[in-house]
Design brief:
- This protein has three domains: 51 residues; 173 residues, Lysozyme (Orthogonal Bundle); 56 residues, Endochitinase, domain 2 (2-Layer Sandwich), CATH 3.30.20.10.
- The chain is globular.
- Helix 1 packs antiparallel against helix 2 and helix 12 packs antiparallel against helix 13.
- Helix content is 47%, strand content 0%.
- With 299 residues, the chain is mainly α.
- The longest helix has 22 residues.
């Protein structure tokens, strides 16, 4: 019988044939076997026809799982409704085949859960008494509301700000600052300094910027990907700062300057809450060091 690499999925023909065999092995006739074999061929082909060849990540984070994670992303209450379809996520992951493609099955699921949890916090629309709980409201926003500045670091001459442009948070990871928009655009094929708005206007590009940030080390920070798949090698400075591998270190990479080294920080706890829910749905443990309260931020 056909299986998937992530989890078993009920298909009508397979289910009927299996139930018949359980009632009486003799009932598993050649016709039933044919139906099983046919379903093994047709269901993957149907998915591929709709979304194209799946990436490693999309093979694990199926559309059904994606929809179960983001229960309210298309509610009227969410400003980003309609902006984060599963098809955009799938297309974006094809550009980063190492994402969700390294390590054991559990490691791959844990990395995907960590990424989706972090972008959920960055775009959350949840609150303590929200329907289905506060951790069912990821991907509710696509752009920072009422930014306090234009996020231009004028001292960064390598990625100079373009007059009149704002580099506030946009997309799933809330990409911010000219020194992130510039290299992200160069890597992905758009002008991040002259046209940063594309991150809030193009769903695929939005997901690609989040994955670019996830996969790209920015010294002295390692990549989030390397941390989650066991490739992180702490420097002496990392050891002294107690920057140990785990979900907490990913939080440190993303926003440690504001959130880490603080006991009981509500923002960190929100990230952990999403991560806990998502790892449960993927059927894996959270792993070590989910918090960053005892880590010093990167300088």
């Amino acid at each position: 019988m056909c299986t998937t690499s992530s989890s078993a999925t009920y298909h009508p023909y397979i289910g009927l044939a299996t139930m018949a065999a359980a009632a009486s092995p003799s009932l598993l006739s050649s016709s039933a076997f044919f139906l099983v074999a046919l379903s093994c061929l047709l269901f993957p082909l149907a998915a591929e026809a709709q979304y194209g060849a799946p990436s490693p990540a999309a093979s694990i984070a199926t559309e059904a799982i994606y929809n179960s994670l983001f229960l309210h992303k298309d509610d009227n209450a969410c400003p980003a409704r309609g902006f984060y379809p599963y098809s955009a996520f799938v297309e974006a992951t094809r550009r980063f085949p190492r994402f969700g493609g390294a390590g054991s099955p559990d490691t791959r699921k844990r990395e995907i859960a960590a990424f989706l949890a972090q972008i959920s916090h960055e775009t959350t629309g949840g609150w303590a008494t929200a329907p289905d709980g506060p951790y069912s409201w990821g991907l509710c926003f696509k752009e920072e509301i009422s930014p306090q500045s234009n996020y231009c670091d004028s001292s960064n001459t390598r990625w100079p700000c373009y007059p009149g442009k704002s580099y506030h948070g946009r997309g799933p990871i809330q990409l911010s600052w000219n020194y992130n928009y510039g290299p992200a655009g160069m890597a992905l094929g758009f002008d991040g300094l002259r046209n940063p708005e594309v991150v809030a206007n193009n769903s695929v590009v939005a997901f690609q910027t989040a994955l670019w940030f996830w996969m790209t080390p920015q010294q002295p920070k390692p990549s989030c990907h390397d941390v989650m798949v066991g490739r992180y090698r702490p420097t002496a400075a990392d050891v002294a700062a107690n920057r140990t591998a785990g979900f907490g270190l990913v939080t440190n990479i993303i926003n440690g300057g504001l959130e880490c080294g603080i006991a009981g920080d509500s923002r960190v706890n929100d990230r952990i809450g999403y991560y806990g829910r998502y790892t449960q749905i993927f059927g894996v443990g959270v792993g070590p060091n989910v918090d960053c309260a005892n880590q010093r931020p990167f300088s």
